[in-house]
Write a structure and sequence with these properties.
With 268 residues, the protein is an alpha/beta fold. 35% of the residues lie in helices and 24% in strands. The strands form 4 sheets. Strands 6-5-4-9-12-14-15 form a 7-stranded parallel sheet, with helices on both faces. A 3-stranded antiparallel sheet has the order 1-3-2. A 3-stranded antiparallel sheet has the order 10-11-13, covered by helices on one side. Helix 2 crosses helix 3 and helix 8 packs parallel to helix 9. The chain is elongated, with a radius of gyration of 20 Å.
């Protein structure tokens, strides 16, 4: 976002906030003060006025559209595994179409990346690198797929490994295709995560890969977590579902990132 060139009256600021939210999904108070060149209190008053009209809802450190249903899912694996299964399966099937025989593929920790595993069964000579224990156990059913687990510090809530050891293993491997996961993403902040130790592994996979795609459903779009991983412009593509609004798809494409959209009707 770039700062506005002239002062705006309250009604103009309100319309501008709504326009930006339709593009981003969620915005921080700081980004709004910088963009409109007004004080923190002015932005707060604008948000309060829009809340009174039922158009926006305040979130920690920012604001989102009232009719935008996205929210950060619970971190515990058993809860996340039950969320949005048709979306995950549709995204996983579409993403797996990019995997060719002989590739080395990184599957990030997460239930969407785990959903990719069954769609790899027909590939020959591939190697899967992962920091996710559930991905590893899912691959037991496909002994022809070589599997490398990164090791590292164990995060019980996500059933995955993270930290320096895991990142160093990833850096030592030449990866053809990386599938990253996230619970929070948007246009302005890119990929974020609530756990700092996960940043290192995700960045290592991004840097070690010839191409990298984010697998994330539309319900996670427009949310932000504490730690930044990477801007969307660092990715080769995003694989999401057809419920992500067309305008937001175009905003991602404007960054030079391809957007593959899975039709939910195709989910198993």
């Amino acid at each position: 976002m770039s700062p506005t060139a002239r002062p705006l009256i309250p009604e103009q600021r309100h319309q501008e906030i709504l326009r930006l939210l339709r593009r981003e999904g969620v915005l921080s108070i700081r980004s709004l003060t910088d963009y409109m060149n007004v004080s923190h209190m002015t932005v707060r008053r604008d948000i309060t006025a829009l809340e009174d009209q039922g158009q926006v809802i305040s979130v920690q450190g920012g604001v989102r559209l009232a009719d935008w249903t996205s929210q950060e899912p619970p971190r515990e694996r058993e809860f996340r595994a039950q969320l949005e299964l048709p979306r995950k399966q549709a995204i996983a099937e579409l993403a797996a179409g990019s995997v060719e025989d002989g590739m080395v593929v990184f599957l990030d920790a997460g239930t969407t990346c785990q959903s990719v595993v069954p769609y790899l069964s027909g590939r020959q000579g591939i190697t899967v690198v992962t920091n996710d224990f559930y991905v590893v156990t899912s691959l037991f059913a496909y002994p022809h797929i070589e599997t490398i687990h990164t090791g590292g510090a164990v995060d019980p809530s996500s059933a995955s490994s993270c930290g320096r050891i895991a990142a160093d293993v990833v850096k030592s491997i030449n990866i053809d295709l990386c599938f990253l996961s996230t619970g929070t993403w948007n246009v302005s902040r890119g990929i974020t995560t609530p756990v700092m130790d996960k940043v290192e592994v995700k960045l290592a996979a991004l840097e070690a890969s010839s191409s990298c795609f984010l697998l994330a459903d539309s319900t996670k779009f427009g949310t932000v977590s504490r730690f930044n991983v990477a801007p969307l412009a660092k990715l080769d593509g995003v694989v999401t579902d057809d419920q992500l609004p067309q305008e937001m798809q175009e905003n991602i494409r404007d960054l030079g990132v391809t957007v593959q959209v899975a039709a939910l009707g195709k989910a198993a």
